[in-house]
Amino acid sequence: MDPKQQASNYDKIAEHWNSDRFNRENGISQHQRALNFAPKAGKAIDIGCGSSGRIIDLLLKHGYDVEGLDLSAEMLRLAKIRHPDLKFHHADICNWRPCDKYAFITAWDSIWHVPLESQTKVISKLLEHLEVNGVIIFTSGAVDEKGDGSNPFLGQELYHAALGIPAILKLLERHNCVCRHLENDDFPNKHLYVVAQKGA
Prior knowledge:
By secondary structure, the protein is α/β, with parallel strands linked by helices. The protein has a single domain (3-17, 26-198), classed as 3-Layer(aba) Sandwich (Rossmann fold). It contains six helices and nine strands; from the N terminus they run ααβαβαββαβββαββ. It has a seven-stranded mixed β-sheet with strand order 3-2-1-4-5-9-8, sandwiched between helices. Strand 6 (147-153) and strand 7 form a beta hairpin. The longest helix is centred in the middle third of the chain and has 13 residues, at 116-128.
């Protein structure tokens, strides 16, 4: 699925993550684990920040200078209401060029929407823009082989893709990053999260 179409589909359901129906604890304990490894201050960015603002709130609480990025205009509109003083990028992560390096990068339930053929490039770009000792947390499919597909959610078709665990680990090594934690945290659902840290 074209990323612009995916963003359009998310525009129609953006309010879900901004409502009481959404569990705001989703992903928080996993981020707390990642933050244990991370520098105690610096620039941070939430890739695919969405509308809930919960991860941004956590990073602000830990003293980071936080930015957000999303391709969904409606997600960003709602995000800006919650955090009017923060910097947000309305951009496709496939084409976006970071100007800075970051002490902490999160891409929770977001970059698995990137087209399969662009996933290696996108993850590599994020790893390249980590500071030394910086930490990244991102989600993928808990699968061994690469693949993609789509499924309906709240009436909208959403595309997902995954490189596979062996390929992700090789990519981390290629970019001088150490895997600090890898877990299929919603077994038997194939939801994987990875925490990695940039070496010197």
